[in-house]
Amino acid sequence: MSGPGANRATSGPGSPDDAALVEDCLRGAPHAWDRFVERFAGLFHHVVDRTCSQRRLALSAADRDDVIAEILVEVLKENAAVLRGFAGRSSLATYLAVIARRTAVRMLSHADANVVRVELPKTGEPAADRHAEHRRADREEIEGLMGCLEADEARLIRLHHLEARSYGEISRLTGLPLGSIGPALSRARQKMREAGQPLPPGQPSAPPPATALGPRAAG
């Protein structure tokens, strides 16, 4: 599972292959889970390595496999809530990459010091570079979660959170009444939270997928 040559998923949004694989896994078709693991092991490996790199962490191969195993547990827990929550509006790979990153971040944040070795930042590295890296990671997560939205909802999220448009600008660009933009953004953000971290019934909503998802003043 830990080898960098593992298969990578390539299906696009709305792929029948995605839907078929999810359905096979949910109904317990023979070898379906083996196909799932074979197809996405490389993706999970990449996500874990990238997450470690962004946080200047180093993992042994065995510890990396532990994180990947935890991602697979996350996919299956609560009666495979992650798979049941896949709506097909993005590729399965994009959807799972968001889940994998959230799981890796959570696990690495609480890892024992003997398991994860923290590397010191390079001397003289500009703070602006570190902030830019975090912004890129936030943007990637937001864009991944946008796959769960309808086209008009995704446009609102892109305009407001990725292009930093004010409510006034969005109203002029889309023709939406100014007072309807805030509630529409709130509904879209809720969908993104549910897609990024499925919750069992009756549980409160998770926090927004990235700090960039705060409200922006109208203008």
Description:
The N terminus and C terminus are likely disordered. The longest helix is centred in the first third of the chain and has 24 residues. This protein has a two-stranded antiparallel sheet with strand order 1-2. The radius of gyration is 19 Å and the shape is globular. Helix 1 crosses helix 2 and helix 2 crosses helix 3. With 219 residues, the protein is mainly alpha-helical. The protein folds into two domains: 103 residues, RNA polymerase sigma factor, region 2, helix turn helix motif (Rna Polymerase Sigma Factor, Chain: A); 87 residues, Arc Repressor Mutant, subunit A, CATH 1.10.10.
Helices and strands, with pairings:
Blueprint: H1 16-26, H2 32-54, E1 57-58, H3 61-84, H4 92-109, E2 117-118, H5 127-145, H6 151-162, H7 167-174, H8 178-196
Antiparallel strand pairs: 1-2
What descriptive keywords fit this protein?
mainly alpha; Rna Polymerase Sigma Factor, Chain: A; Arc Repressor Mutant, subunit A; 2% strand; disordered N terminus
Proportion of strand residues: under 5%
How many strands, which pairing sense, and closed or not: the largest β-sheet? 2 strands, antiparallel
Report low-confidence residues grouped into runs of 5 or more. 1-12, 112-121, 197-219
Strands, count: 2
Order of helices and strands: HHEHHEHHHH
CATH class of the largest domain: Mainly Alpha
CATH topology name of the largest domain: Rna Polymerase Sigma Factor, Chain: A
Proportion of residues in helical segments: 55-70%
Named CATH architecture of the largest domain: Orthogonal Bundle
Count of runs of 4 or more consecutive helical residues: 8
| Oligomeric grouping of the chains | single chain
Average predicted local confidence, pLDDT: 74
Task: Give the overall shape.
Answer: globular
Strand order of the largest sheet: 1-2
Domain count: 2
